[in-house]
Task: inverse folding
């Protein structure tokens, strides 16, 4: 059983998805989905434990040996990402049953869970596979299901947003496929480890350079790196709020993983950072992403838009950490992947609670909300503080490590710019808080007072995530150790 | 001792939680008991305690007790007790809870053994104290609080940036002597300077303190700036620059204080003036000077607190605080008048009052170390203090022309708090040895010798004479209902106006350019639409996707171009 761990991750939700279709009763489907997702969480914990204890695991699918068959390979980086994705997915699913009550008609709820599980399969698959083409297949699974999930949004603009995302996502995936195809043409292999050994022989050919460029652009599109971010705000804003909470914490993180995997493991460090002035390009794009997206966030009226733009800004932080291309920088990136998942899922889940109770998505509708929903708003404040990077929250930990990495590298002007960009975060978080705490409530028809605060089925997951934001801001052993191990092994400092 | 390892801020934070959940007598009891227990705990501590934890990869020291921090620890417990007694009559959960959090944060900051812990409490100070300003619940208070918070957060960010540089240079976060070396030293110095109200960085203080509630101002005056003084004494003793900064701080507020009408704002200016004496002491850096600075911080909290309490009592009872609206209150507020005069005598450093025994230490140290010019400035400042704080405050509030107000003395708890402060003022003045014993450096110093007493008495006498003469001849600046412009006019009006006008021009330019470009774009679009004969509606939906794809193409082309140019 234990030796099958790497593949069980993917199999469990993959099996659960069609089963959901057969059951077709939302309540039972929900329970099944939670069980499946919870199981993957347990499995990923076991995997992480094994990897830390015994080093990377490999698994040969169907018993076919590695370069010919598909290989699953779990090292520190994979295990870390698996843990993040499965944990967030499980917590978000807890809230799903209540949250989608008002947003998705009951006859479509089963489809929601099916799509949800499929996208989980896709993301877990991307992260666990060691085969480049298999990665593309899972990328398509997760993307196709996410188009469906976004299109389920109540707002009619959701369809349009999903359509935009579909076009952009398909272009991105196609680019990645073209890249993989070119690599296959040059080396005759699809296994990542094999590729990394064969690519150096043909590294100085146009085809490999072109493959690299296509893959980088495709991945950047998937991770919504400025200026390829245009699909993201609408997709996040008009999707059902539970979907937003789920994707904001996982989808872009998976894309970051793909970027790191291709540049570090497949193409190799020396190629990746010499083929293009990747460092400079990413540094500039990351910084401009932070500023442009934060400024855009300040001017948004839709609260979901505010935090969607904030996600783009935070991708900027991750990319800057990546562009430092030192162990410390990559550690900061991975740490922020973990921490940002916690912040954004907490924020969007709390927004889901607000939307569930009041239907409010526009800033002006948040007036005086702190009196109606004190617990939910307190969660938003704490998660917002984490987003800003207040001490004792995870946000502070990421910021600290990023700054240290920048200064170690001697890039202190960038550090200053990041601190300035951080002030913009204060502004857009403050706009929400000011509305909720310092304005009198909107005059509305009298509401039933017992039904002001969000139900516990929503509050509980929200506060679990908020507590995690604070817990991992204080006890940083898990996140930092694993991130450091992963970064060190990617740089080949540690085997 | 099972409690020795318990950091001093913990009881306060727990009490804040309890106070939030209780009400009435229970809450009052909790609030009163906490500072007393805390002080006893400090008293029972062994000489030095350090608590260390590992956070990230660093050795942190969230609790460090030595003589310097212990002194401020006692001071803050005392100040908290007095302020809590003073505010017992208030029925406002927010203020009371925040008061405990604020005092706890100040304690956390002075007992912080590393820069990161200091930063955490630095921000806690800002975020708790701002609610004391907002508790005024007026639009003015809200705006002033916002400005206050902005400045404080900026100071915190600078401190954090400094800490990052420091850890990179030194590999440790321990908070010991820093000095003005490298980026770390300067960043932290400016961060402290903001909190300590250095000239040009002081506007937040005079802006926000007078807008806080009656009880809030008393608390505010005790903690924030004194934490900064502590941090300066820890990190920058003997930095000569501080001597000149301090000298400037003693002098410039006098002019503003003399013409200011809002009596609490007068006190805020006089606070900067007193901080100046402490900063000078720290800058000189000898044992006597630093001792003097710290002793003066101790006394200042008490007598400045007393004055703020007296003015708060006036505000509370009459609803007015402008010198021009007050006067003649001594008839019906005799106790407050007496207590206020004791505070005024202390701040003016009359012999036998507390200000005298600490201020003279700084001045002697300035002479001993050949800062003669600075000594003269300090002398001038001392005379000025007597003018604006010693005479002006009691005179305009309680005497002067009778404004016809007939209000009684404030509630007993307020009187009691003032009485405690007043007794302390006199006790320290009469028996300074008790205070000197607490100071971090050993020294034998006696304030009561003939030269000191004569100099000070002459100074005070002539200063009083000047006030009387100016007043009788009608030269003294009258109390006018006016708003005085401080340097923050530059920040708030001048720069704002410049920026607005620049932006207005830019916007106009931008609009013009955009109109032209858009006109061209629309002409092209119309052309396309006409030639395709399908109508312009088509574009509105497809353009966003089109632009996204365009960016993809641009990026791909750029990547390919760059890599091909570089390698082939």
Result:
């Amino acid at each position: 059983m234990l030796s099958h761990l790497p593949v069980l991750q993917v199999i469990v939700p993959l099996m659960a998805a069609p089963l959901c279709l057969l059951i077709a009763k939302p309540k039972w489907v929900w329970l099944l989905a939670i069980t499946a997702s919870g199981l993957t969480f347990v499995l990923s914990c076991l995997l992480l434990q094994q990897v830390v204890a015994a080093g990377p695991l490999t698994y040969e699918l169907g018993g076919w040996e590695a370069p010919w068959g598909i290989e699953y390979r779990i090292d520190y980086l994979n295990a870390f990402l698996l843990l993040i994705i499965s944990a967030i997915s499980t917590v978000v699913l807890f809230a799903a049953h209540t949250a989608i009550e008002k947003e998705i008609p009951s006859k479509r709820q089963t489809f929601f869970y099916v799509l949800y599980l499929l996208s989980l399969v896709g993301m877990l698959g991307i992260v666990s596979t060691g085969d480049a083409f298999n990665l593309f297949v899972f990328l398509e699974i997760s993307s196709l299901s996410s188009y469906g999930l976004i299109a389920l949004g109540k707002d009619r603009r959701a369809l349009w947003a999903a359509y935009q995302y579909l076009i952009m996502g398909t272009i991105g995936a196609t680019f990645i496929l073209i890249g993989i195809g070119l690599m296959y043409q040059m080396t005759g292999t699809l296994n990542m480890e094999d590729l990394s050994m064969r690519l150096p022989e043909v590294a100085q050919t146009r085809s490999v350079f072109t493959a690299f460029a296509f893959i980088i652009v495709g991945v950047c599109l998937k991770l919504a790196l400025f200026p390829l971010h245009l699909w993201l705000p609408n997709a996040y804003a008009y999707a059902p709020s539970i979907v937003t909470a789920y994707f904001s914490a996982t989808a872009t993180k998976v894309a970051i993983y793909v970027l790191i995997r291709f540049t570090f493991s497949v193409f190799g460090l020396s190629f990746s950072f010499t083929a293009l002035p990747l460092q400079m390009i990413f540094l500039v794009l990351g910084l401009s992403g932070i500023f442009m997206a934060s400024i855009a966030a300040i001017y948004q009226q839709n609260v979901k838009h505010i935090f969607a733009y904030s996600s783009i800004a935070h991708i900027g932080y991750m990319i800057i950490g990546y562009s430092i291309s030192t162990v410390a920088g990559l550690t900061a990136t991975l740490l922020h992947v973990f921490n940002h998942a916690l912040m954004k899922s907490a924020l969007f889940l709390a927004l889901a609670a607000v939307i569930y109770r009041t239907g409010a998505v526009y800033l002006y509708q948040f007036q005086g909300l702190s009196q109606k929903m004190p617990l939910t708003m307190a969660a938003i404040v704490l998660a917002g503080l984490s987003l800003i990077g207040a001490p004792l929250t995870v946000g502070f930990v990421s910021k600290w490590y990023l700054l240290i990495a920048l200064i170690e590298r001697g890039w202190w002007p960038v550090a200053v710019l990041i601190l300035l960009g951080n002030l913009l975060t204060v502004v857009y978080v403050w706009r929400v808080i000011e509305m909720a705490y310092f304005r009198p409530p909107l005059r509305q028809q009298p509401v039933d007072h017992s039904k002001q605060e969000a139900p516990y089925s929503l509050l509980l997951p929200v506060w679990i995530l908020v507590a995690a934001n604070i817990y991992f801001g204080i006890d940083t052993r898990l996140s930092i150790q694993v991130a450091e191990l992963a970064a060190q092994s990617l740089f080949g400092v540690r085997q | 001792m099972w409690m020795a390892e318990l950091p001093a801020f913990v009881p306060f934070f727990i009490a804040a939680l309890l106070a939030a959940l209780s009400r009435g007598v229970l809450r009052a009891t909790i609030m009163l008991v906490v500072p007393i227990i805390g002080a006893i705990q400090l008293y029972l501590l062994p000489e030095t305690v350090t608590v260390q934890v590992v956070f990230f990869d660093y050795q942190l020291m969230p609790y460090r007790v030595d003589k310097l921090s212990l002194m401020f620890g006692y001071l803050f417990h005392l100040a908290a007790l007095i302020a809590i007694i003073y505010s017992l009559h208030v029925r406002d959960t927010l203020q009371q809870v925040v008061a405990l959090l604020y005092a706890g944060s100040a304690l956390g900051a002075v007992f912080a053994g590393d820069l990161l812990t200091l930063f955490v409490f630095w921000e806690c100070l800002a975020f708790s104290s701002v609610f004391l300003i907002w508790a005024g619940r007026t639009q003015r208070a809200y705006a002033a609080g916002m400005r206050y918070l902005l400045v404080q957060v900026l100071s915190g960010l600078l401190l954090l940036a400094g800490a990052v540089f420091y850890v990179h240079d030194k590999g440790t976060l321990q908070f010991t002597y820093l000095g003005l070396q490298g980026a770390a030293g300067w960043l932290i110095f400016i961060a402290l300077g903001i909190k300590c109200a250095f000239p040009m960085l002081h506007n937040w203080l005079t802006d926000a303190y007078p807008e806080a509630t009656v009880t809030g101002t008393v608390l505010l005056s005790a903690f924030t700036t004194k934490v900064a003084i502590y941090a300066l004494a820890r990190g920058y003793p003997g930095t000569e620059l501080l001597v000149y900064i301090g000298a400037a701080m003693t002098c410039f507020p006098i002019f503003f204080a003399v013409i200011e009408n809002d009596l609490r704002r007068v006190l805020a200016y006089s606070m900067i003036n007193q901080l100046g004496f402490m900063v000078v002491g720290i800058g000189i850096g000898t044992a006597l000077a630093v001792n003097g600075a710290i002793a003066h911080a101790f006394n200042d909290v008490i007598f400045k607190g007393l004055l703020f309490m007296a003015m708060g009592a006036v505000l509370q009872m009459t609803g007015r605080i402008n010198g021009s609206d007050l006067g003649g209150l001594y008839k019906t507020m005799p106790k407050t008048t007496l207590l206020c005069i004791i505070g005024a005598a202390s701040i003016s450093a009359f012999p036998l009052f507390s200000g005298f025994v600490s201020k003279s230490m700084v001045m002697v140290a300035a002479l001993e170390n050949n800062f003669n010019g600075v000594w003269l400035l300090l002398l001038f400042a001392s005379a000025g203090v007597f003018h604006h704080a010693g005479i002006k405050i009691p005179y305009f509030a309680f005497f002067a022309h009778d404004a016809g107000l007939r209000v009684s003395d404030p509630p007993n708890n307020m009187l009691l708090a003032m009485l405690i402060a007043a007794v302390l003022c006199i006790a320290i003045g009469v028996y300074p040895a008790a205070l000197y014993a607490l100071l971090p450096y050993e020294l034998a110093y006696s304030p009561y010798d003939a030269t000191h007493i004569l100099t000070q008495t002459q100074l005070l006498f002539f200063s009083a004479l000047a006030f009387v003469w100016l007043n009788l001849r009608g030269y003294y600046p009258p109390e006018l209902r006016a708003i005085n412009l401080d340097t923050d006019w530059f920040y708030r009006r001048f720069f704002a106006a410049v920026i607005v006008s620049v932006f207005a021009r830019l916007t106009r330019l931008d609009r013009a350019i955009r109109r032209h470009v858009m006109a061209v774009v629309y002409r092209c679009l119309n052309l396309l639409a006409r030639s395709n004969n399908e109508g312009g509606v088509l574009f509105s939906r497809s353009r966003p996707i089109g632009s996204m794809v365009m960016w993809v193409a641009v990026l791909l082309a750029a990547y390919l171009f760059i890599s091909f140019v570089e390698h082939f």
